[in-house]
Specification:
alpha/beta, Spore Coat Polysaccharide Biosynthesis Protein SpsA, Chain A, 2 domains, seven-stranded mixed sheet, 15 helices, 11 strands, 37% helix, 14% strand
Length: 381
């Protein structure tokens, strides 16, 4: 392996040149301390010929190559390291760089901390070929340090047993916020899909939102080998308490895009409900009372106002507890302590206030708590 400058592919290992690889696997790595050899080895553990592209993001490629020195590369597959430098810690730039360098019919992206269960890529490829899928959604699981499954991650909460011809609205695809699995490279180019630059977090949300509601055929490998999420890196940036303007900038940018506003109202509502539940309400849980200055409260209200404007009526499927939080959020003068108490109350799952919609006519709506929770339980099986 050898490193390359931006836009220049690093050379594969001698003797391991892949002439007809079926899948380009792109892994962005940001420090020499990441367990990159583990991720690369797992991607190579497949009967499918793959080219693993490791993009060294603001780190010396030679250090990454040293970490990969012991990785065994099967015949027909190869590994290369590309250099990429920019001014942000976001993985958007290096992922885009790797996608731009891809030439195989299919691509996949991975986090440098994560790993794939053996045979995952082969399972995704088989499903894509049999069904003509533009995207195969991977089964997702949280992994222990030894790679064993600790818990299945129940997203997306699709219709029961659904594996092919998934629909963005009916299968609640917005709850899968990252394009983990297999992607048809021609479909990516046709849709113009790349990770959003300029945001430290949320760089993948616009990517998948556009994909899920594009009408492209989407499959779900719900019984296959899993994409294993590891949480043993010590330098993650997702837990940093950024200001609201930085943390949710990707949402403001997304809901103002012409392509999003051109989506049918049911699609915009389905996406917006997920934005509120996961990104906005989730933010309240991870910030202390001291964080919520008047300026931050005003900014949060502004972001929520943008979401509600882009998808009018989306709040009708929210639970009574969620609506109480929403009312406090959009009023920056409301008591901070009460706001955080309401945010904690909405997480008491199974209580009447978290199950019953404020608008009783939406009690059994697809995005309402009763059906969403039932689908989430079934998604584990």
């Amino acid at each position: 392996m050898s490193g390359g400058g931006p836009g220049v592919a690093g050379a594969p290992r001698p003797g391991d040149v892949a002439t007809e690889v079926m899948v380009d696997v792109v892994i962005a790595v940001h420090t020499a301390q990441r367990p990159i050899a583990r991720a690369v080895s797992s991607a190579l553990a497949s009967p499918v010929q793959v080219r693993v592209t490791v993009v060294a993001h603001n780190v010396d490629p030679a250090l990454i190559e040293d970490n990969l020195a012991g990785v065994a590369v099967p015949p027909g597959s190869c590994v290369r390291v590309l250099a990429f430098t920019d001014t942000t810690r976001s993985p958007a730039g290096p992922f885009n760089h790797g996608l731009d360098a891809a030439r195989a019919p299919y691509v996949a992206v991975m986090g440098s901390d994560d790993r794939l269960a053996p045979g995952a890529i082969a399972s995704w490829l088989d499903l894509a070929r049999r069904n003509g899928a533009a995207a195969v959604v991977a089964r997702l699981a949280a992994a222990r340090s030894d790679g064993s499954i600790a818990a299945i991650v129940p997203t997306p909460p699709t219709r029961p047993l659904r594996t092919t011809m998934l629909d963005g609205v009916r299968d609640r695809l917005s709850y899968r916020s990252a394009p983990l699995g297999l992607l048809d490279r021609a479909a990516l180019e046709r849709l113009g899909l790349r990770f959003t630059l300029g945001h430290e977090v949320g760089e993948d949300v616009a990517f998948v939102t556009r994909l899920w509601f594009s009408g492209a055929p989407i499959a779900f490998d719900r019984r296959g080998p899993a994409y294993l999420v590891q949480d043993d890196a010590g330098d993650r940036t997702t837990g940093v308490a950024r200001p609201v303007a930085a943390e949710l900038a990707f949402l403001v940018d997304l809901v103002d895009q012409d392509w999003f506003l051109a989506l049918p109202l049911p699609a915009r509502r389905a996406a917006a409900v997920k934005f509120l539940r996961i990104h906005v309400f989730g933010l309240l849980i991870h910030r202390t009372e001291e964080f919520w200055t008047p300026r931050e409260r005003v900014e949060l209200a502004r972001v929520v106002g943008e979401i509600l404007h882009a998808a009018p009526g989306c709040e009708r499927v929210l639970s009574r507890a969620d609506c109480a939080v929403l009312r406090a959020v959009v009023d920056p003068a409301s008591d901070v302590g009460q706001l955080l108490a309401l945010a904690a109350e909405r997480r008491r799952h199974g209580q009447p206030a978290t199950l019953v919609t404020a608008d009783l006519t939406r009690l059994l709506a697809r995005e309402a708590p009763l059906r969403l929770m039932a689908a989430s339980v079934l998604a584990r099986w």
